[in-house]
C-alpha cells in the first residue's frame, strides 16, 4: 500500500512522501559514570498520514527520540550529539482554501512552500520548493510556534501532564491563546492590524502577553470589557468544540472541572483534545494507553485512529505493548539500546520478523498456544549504554550471535521492499568491509 | 497439573484440598464530610465476595481498575480487616461443609453454628499462634517494587527480614539462607549488599518474590506483579513463578487486569465488577464459554498479536464509566453498561438520574427527587413543561429498550413526575457448568 502511495505522490513533485525524517539522531546524557548513549544514530522517516509505531523495552531510547521532535529534552545533562530531525510543516492548500482539490489529493492541505524562494526551488530547499526545518537547530521562538500547533504530544500519564491547579478549560485554552489568537480577535471583531492602544491591549491579552495595565484597562472601560468578553466566549466555544470532538459528554461541565475530578479515561481524552486542538501535522503519542484499563484503552485507540484518519495527520506511536502497535500502526520501528534494529510494515514485521530481538519480543507475549512456564523470555536485560564499543548491542543476549557480532556494528539494510534490518545474519559481513573496519 | 516430587512437597493428605475459603467478605470505607466529619455514605469497595483457593492452584482475579480486586487481595492476606464476613484458613472438608451449610441459616443461628469454626480457622478471630502460622503461610508480592522495598535497606535485610522476625535463622546461617533464596529467583551472592535502587524493575520484582518465599509459604498473593514490567522481563518472571509453583506446590492468588497473562497463568478465574464477583470458573471454560456479558466485554477489549481485521471492527466496546461504588446500581451492577440487559436486571431511580445527565437542559430544571424505594419515587421539576419533556424522553428511543420495559409507571401531575420500576432482587451466582458460576439473568 505504502509503495503505491509513494509512486503516485512522486509524480507530483510538490507533495513529499515524508513529513518528517530523522537522520543519525544522537542524544547522549552526561552522568558520573560516563556518557550514556541513550539514542545513538537513529534513522527513520514518517510518511504523510501514516501511524509509525516505535517499540522497544524500557530504556531503549524511544521516548527520548519522541521528545527530540519537540526539543523537550533536559539540556544539560542531555547532549544533542548530532544528527537532524527534519520536519516539513503543512499549510492550507492555496488552490482550494482547504476544501480539497486535485492538487492536494482532496486533503485540503499542502506542504508549506520554502520561505526563501516561495516554492520555486533554491539551494536552501534542495530545489524542492518545500519548507524543511531542522527541529534541533531552529530558534526557540520558532520552536514555540511549532510546539502544540504543528507538532503535538500526547503524554503517557495524564494525571502528571495536566496541571492540577488549573481547570480543564484554562489549560486547554492556552493552546488557542498561544497559537490561534488571531482567530479569537477576529471573532471579537478586531482586525489584525487595527491601530489604537485599546486594540493593542486586547491583542496582548489574547496572546497571553498582557501587562498589568491591560487587565486594569479591561476592568475600567466598558467597551473593552465587551470586546474582552467576546474573546473569552470565542475561546470557550473553541475549547468546548475540541473537547466534544474526543467524545467527552457534557464538555461545558468538564471545562469547569479540575483534572482530579475526572476519571483516567476522561483525562486522557482531555490530553488528546489538547493535542488535536490546532489540527497538528504530526502527533507524538508517548504510551497514551499504558495507564488505562483494557476497556478504556480500546475506546481511546478507536478514537485516536478515527481522528487521525479524518484529519490525515501523521502519528508517531511510542509503546512497549506489541499488541497495541499491531492494531493501530501502519509501520513499526523496533528500537534496542538507542538504535533502530528493524523497521517495516506492520504485516511484514509481525508475520516475518527478521531480527532476533524482534523475534524474541514477539515470542515473549503470552498467547493461548504457549504452554505454561514456557514463555520464550529474552535472557538478561537492556545493557547500560555508557560509552559502548563497536559491536551489535544485542549480541550478549542473542541466541544467534556469532563471529562479527562482537566486533562490528551492523547497519540498517533492506531485506525486502520497505523492510530494513540491522543484523549480520541477514547481511553477512564481507571481507572488504571487515578490512575497512 | 503436574507437580514435581521434591523435598518441599507437603504431606499427601493436604494435597489438593482447600487452603483458604473466603466467605461473604465485604469492605466498606466511610465517606466523611462536614466540620464534624460525619459519615455520610459508604464506598463499597468489596461487597460480599466468596471463593476458595485450593492448594497448588493459581486463581486469577480480574476486573477493571476500581472494581475492588486489590482491596480483596489485601483482605485475603489479612493486611486490612473486613467490615463483615471472614476468611478461613486451612479448613478440612468437614468444617468446609459445615461452613457452607451455615451460610444458608438465618443470622442469629449462623453465629452459633460458626462459633467453633471462627475460633479455630477465621483469620480475624483465630488465636495468636494460629494467626502467626497463617501469616507465615500467606505472603504477598506487590505491584510497585519501588514502593514495596525499603530504599534504605540492603537486599540481605529485605529478604532476611521474615526469617529474622520468625526467628528462623540468624548470623551466618541467615546469610546462607538468603543466598539460597536469591539463587532460586535467579540472583546471587553478589547482590546481597546492594540497595533496591541498584536493580532494574525485573530484578526488584525478583527480590520481592524471594522475600515472599523466605518462610516457605503455601499461598502467595501476587498483586499485578508484572504490570510495571516489559514484555520480555514479564516472560522471565512468569516462567520463574511457574517453576517455583511446580517445585513447592504453591498456591497463587494472581490479581491482574491483563487477560493474556491470566489466561496463561491461572487454573481458575474470578471476574469482579464493582465489588461483586460476576463470574467464576475454570480458565478454559471462562475463555471458551463465558456466561457473563462483562467477562465477554473484557475479552473483546483485549488485543492480541493476531492480524487486525474484521474482529476488531465489530467489537462491542463498553460504553460509559464504572458507576459510583458508593451507590452501586441495584440488581445486576453491570446493567447500566450491559449490551444485553433485560427488564429484570434491576432498573431503578438512579438510572433516570444517569439519563438526565445526558440531557443537560432537563438536568438543570430538576429540583428534587423523593424516593419511596430504590424502584419508585417522584421527580420534581421547575415547571410542568420540563416534567412533560422528561416523561417523553423516558418513553422515547433515547433510553434503552429494557429500561422502558422495566418502567411500570411514569405519570406527570403538574411539575411532578411519578415513576415506578419493576422490583428486582440482587442477581445471585448460579451454576453454569462444572465449577463454573455466573451472576446473570440470562441463560
From TrEMBL, chain A:
Species: Flavimaricola marinus
Protein name (Swiss-Prot/TrEMBL): Nickel import system ATP-binding protein NikD
InterPro entries from the UniProt entry: AAA+_ATPase, ABC_Ni/Peptide_Import, ABC_transporter-like_ATP-bd, ABC_transporter-like_CS, Oligopep_ABC_C, P-loop_NTPase
PROSITE patterns: ABC_TRANSPORTER_1, ABC_TRANSPORTER_2
Highest taxon in the source lineage: Bacteria
Species lineage: Bacteria, Pseudomonadati, Pseudomonadota, Alphaproteobacteria, Rhodobacterales
BP GO annotations: peptide transport
Signal peptide segment: none
SUPFAM superfamilies registered for this protein in UniProt: P-loop containing nucleoside triphosphate hydrolases
Record family assignment: Belongs to the ABC transporter superfamily.
Catalytic reaction(s) noted: Ni(2+)(out) + ATP + H2O = Ni(2+)(in) + ADP + phosphate + H(+)
Name of the top EC class for this enzyme: translocase
GO cellular component: plasma membrane
EC number: 7.2.2.11
Lipid bilayer topology: Peripheral membrane protein
Domain ABC transporter: start-end pairs: 22-362
Cell compartment(s), UniProt: Cell inner membrane
Keyword Nucleotide-binding part of the UniProt annotation: yes
Matches recorded under PANTHER family: NICKEL ABC TRANSPORTER, ATP-BINDING PROTEIN, OLIGOPEPTIDE TRANSPORT ATP-BINDING PROTEIN APPD
Quaternary structure (record): The complex is composed of two ATP-binding proteins (NikD and NikE), two transmembrane proteins (NikB and NikC) and a solute-binding protein (NikA).
UniProt KW keywords: ATP-binding, Cell membrane, Ion transport, Membrane, Nucleotide-binding, Translocase, Transport
GO terms of molecular function: ABC-type nickel transporter activity; ATP binding; ATP hydrolysis activity
UniProtKB/TrEMBL annotation, chain B:
Gene Ontology terms describing biological process: peptide transport; transmembrane transport
A Gene Ontology molecular function term of the record: ATP binding
UniProt keywords, alphabetically: ATP-binding, Nucleotide-binding, Transport
InterPro entries: AAA+_ATPase, ABC_transp_ATP-bind, ABC_transporter-like_ATP-bd, ABC_transporter-like_CS, Oligopep_ABC_C, P-loop_NTPase
Residue span(s) of domain ABC transporter: 20-299
Keyword ATP-binding: yes
GO cellular component, one term: plasma membrane
Subcellular location: Cell inner membrane
Keyword Transport carried by entry: yes
Membrane topology listed for this record: Peripheral membrane protein
Domain of life, source organism: Bacteria
The family this protein is said to belong to: Belongs to the ABC transporter superfamily.
Protein's name in the database: Putative D,D-dipeptide transport ATP-binding protein DdpF
Protein's gene: ddpF
Amino acid at each position: 500500500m505504502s509503495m503505491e502511495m509513494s509512486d503516485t505522490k512522486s509524480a507530483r513533485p510538490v507533495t513529499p512522501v515524508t513529513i518528517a525524517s530523522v537522520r543519525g539522531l544522537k542524544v547522549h546524557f552526561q552522568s558520573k559514570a560516563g556518557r550514556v548513549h541513550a539514542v545513538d544514530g537513529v534513522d527513520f522517516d514518517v510518511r504523510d498520514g501514516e501511524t509509525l509505531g516505535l517499540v522497544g523495552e524500557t530504556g531503549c531510547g524511544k521516548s527520548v527520540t519522541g521528545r527530540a521532535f519537540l526539543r523537550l529534552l533536559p539540556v544539560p545533562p542531555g547532549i544533542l550529539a548530532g544528527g537532524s530531525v527534519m520536519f516539513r510543516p503543512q499549510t492550507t492548500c492555496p488552490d482550494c482554501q482547504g476544501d480539497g482539490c486535485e492538487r492536494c489529493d482532496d486533503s485540503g492541505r499542502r506542504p508549506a512552500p520554502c520561505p526563501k524562494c516561495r516554492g520555486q526551488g533554491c539551494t536552501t530547499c534542495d530545489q524542492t520548493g518545500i519548507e524543511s526545518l531542522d527541529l534541533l537547530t531552529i530558534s526557540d521562538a520558532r520552536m514555540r510556534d511549532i510546539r502544540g500547533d504543528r507538532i503535538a504530544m500526547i503524554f503517557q500519564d495524564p494525571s502528571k501532564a495536566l496541571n492540577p491547579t488549573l481547570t480543564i478549560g484554562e489549560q486547554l485554552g492556552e493552546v488557542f491563546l498561544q497559537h490561534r489568537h488571531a482567530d479569537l480577535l477576529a471573532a471579537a471583531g478586531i482586525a489584525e492590524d487595527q491601530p489604537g492602544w485599546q486594540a493593542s491591549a486586547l491583542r496582548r491579552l489574547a496572546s497571553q502577553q498582557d501587562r498589568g495595565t491591560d487587565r486594569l484597562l479591561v476592568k475600567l472601560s466598558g467597551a473593552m470589557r465587551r470586546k474582552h468578553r467576546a474573546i473569552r466566549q470565542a475561546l470557550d466555544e473553541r475549547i468546548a468544540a475540541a473537547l466534544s470532538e474526543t467524545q467527552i459528554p457534557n464538555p461545558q461541565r468538564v471545562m469547569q472541572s479540575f483534572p482530579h475530578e475526572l476519571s483516567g479515561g476522561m483525562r486522557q481524552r482531555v490530553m488528546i483534545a489538547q493535542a488535536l486542538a490546532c489540527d497538528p501535522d504530526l502527533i507524538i503519542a508517548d504510551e497514551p494507553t499504558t495507564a488505562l484499563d483494557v476497556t478504556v484503552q480500546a475506546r481511546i485507540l478507536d478514537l485516536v485512529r478515527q481522528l487521525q484518519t479524518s484529519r490525515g495527520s501523521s502519528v508517531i506511536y511510542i509503546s512497549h505493548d506489541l499488541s497495541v502497535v499491531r492494531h493501530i500502526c501502519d509501520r513499526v520501528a523496533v528500537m534496542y539500546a538507542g538504535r533502530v534494529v528493524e523497521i517495516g510494515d506492520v504485516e511484514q514485521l509481525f508475520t516475518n520478523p527478521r531480527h532476533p530481538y524482534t523475534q524474541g519480543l514477539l515470542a515473549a507475549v503470552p498467547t493461548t498456544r504457549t504452554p505454561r512456564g514456557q514463555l520464550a523470555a529474552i535472557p538478561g536485560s537492556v545493557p547500560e549504554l555508557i560509552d559502548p564499543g563497536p559491536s551489535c548491542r544485542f549480541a550478549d543476549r542473542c541466541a544467534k550471535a556469532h563471529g562479527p557480532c562482537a566486533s562490528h556494528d551492523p547497519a540498517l539494510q533492506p531485506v525486502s521492499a520497505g523492510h530494513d534490518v540491522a543484523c549480520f545474519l541477514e547481511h553477512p559481513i564481507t571481507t572488504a568491509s571487515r578490512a575497512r573496519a | 497439573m503436574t507437580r514435581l516430587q521434591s523435598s518441599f512437597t507437603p504431606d499427601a493428605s493436604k494435597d489438593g484440598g482447600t487452603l483458604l475459603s473466603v466467605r461473604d467478605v465485604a469492605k466498606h470505607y466511610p465517606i466523611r464530610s462536614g466540620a464534624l466529619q460525619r459519615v455520610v455514605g459508604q464506598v463499597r469497595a468489596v461487597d460480599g465476595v466468596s471463593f476458595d483457593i485450593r492448594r497448588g492452584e493459581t486463581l486469577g482475579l480480574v476486573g477493571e481498575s476500581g472494581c475492588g480486586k486489590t482491596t480483596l487481595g489485601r483482605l485475603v492476606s489479612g493486611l486490612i480487616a473486613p467490615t463483615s464476613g471472614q476468611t478461613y484458613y486451612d479448613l478440612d472438608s468437614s468444617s468446609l461443609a459445615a461452613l457452607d451449610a451455615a451460610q444458608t441459616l438465618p443470622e442469629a443461628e449462623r453465629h452459633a453454628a460458626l462459633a467453633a469454626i471462627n475460633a479455630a480457622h477465621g483469620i480475624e478471630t483465630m488465636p495468636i499462634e494460629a494467626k502467626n502460622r497463617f501469616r507465615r503461610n500467606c505472603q504477598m508480592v506487590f505491584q510497585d517494587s519501588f514502593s514495596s522495598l525499603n530504599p534504605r535497606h540492603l537486599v540481605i535485610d529485605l529478604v532476611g527480614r521474615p526469617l529474622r522476625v520468625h526467628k528462623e535463622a540468624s548470623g551466618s546461617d541467615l546469610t546462607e539462607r538468603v543466598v539460597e533464596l536469591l539463587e532460586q529467583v535467579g540472583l546471587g551472592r553478589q547482590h546481597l549488599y546492594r540497595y533496591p535502587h541498584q536493580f532494574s524493575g525485573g530484578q526488584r520484582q525478583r527480590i520481592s518474590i524471594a522475600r515472599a518465599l523466605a518462610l516457605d509459604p503455601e499461598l502467595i498473593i501476587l498483586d499485578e506483579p508484572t504490570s510495571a514490567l516489559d514484555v520480555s522481563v514479564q516472560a522471565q518472571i512468569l516462567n520463574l513463578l511457574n517453576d517455583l509453583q511446580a517445585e513447592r506446590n504453591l498456591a497463587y492468588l494472581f490479581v491482574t487486569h491483563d487477560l493474556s497473562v491470566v489466561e496463561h497463568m491461572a487454573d481458575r478465574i474470578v471476574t469482579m465488577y464493582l465489588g461483586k464477583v460476576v463470574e467464576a470458573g475454570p480458565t478454559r471454560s471462562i475463555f471458551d464459554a463465558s456466561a457473563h456479558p462483562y467477562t465477554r466485554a473484557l475479552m473483546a477489549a483485549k488485543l492480541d498479536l493476531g492480524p487486525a481485521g474484521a474482529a476488531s471492527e465489530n467489537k462491542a466496546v463498553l460504553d460509559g464509566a464504572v458507576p459510583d461504588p458508593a451507590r452501586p446500581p441495584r440488581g445486576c451492577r453491570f446493567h447500566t453498561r450491559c449490551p444485553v440487559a433485560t427488564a429484570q436486571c434491576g432498573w431503578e431511580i438512579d438510572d433516570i438520574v444517569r439519563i438526565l445527565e445526558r440531557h443537560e437542559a432537563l438536568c438543570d430544571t430538576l429540583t428534587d427527587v423523593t424516593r419511596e424505594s430504590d424502584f419508585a419515587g417522584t421527580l420534581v421539576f421547575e415547571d410542568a413543561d420540563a416534567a412533560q419533556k422528561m416523561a417523553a424522553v423516558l418513553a422515547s428511543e433515547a433510553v434503552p429498550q429494557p429500561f422502558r420495559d422495566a418502567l411500570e409507571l411514569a405519570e406527570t401531575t403538574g411539575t411532578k413526575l411519578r415513576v415506578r420500576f419493576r422490583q428486582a432482587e440482587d442477581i445471585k451466582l448460579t451454576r453454569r457448568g462444572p465449577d463454573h458460576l455466573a451472576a446473570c439473568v440470562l441463560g
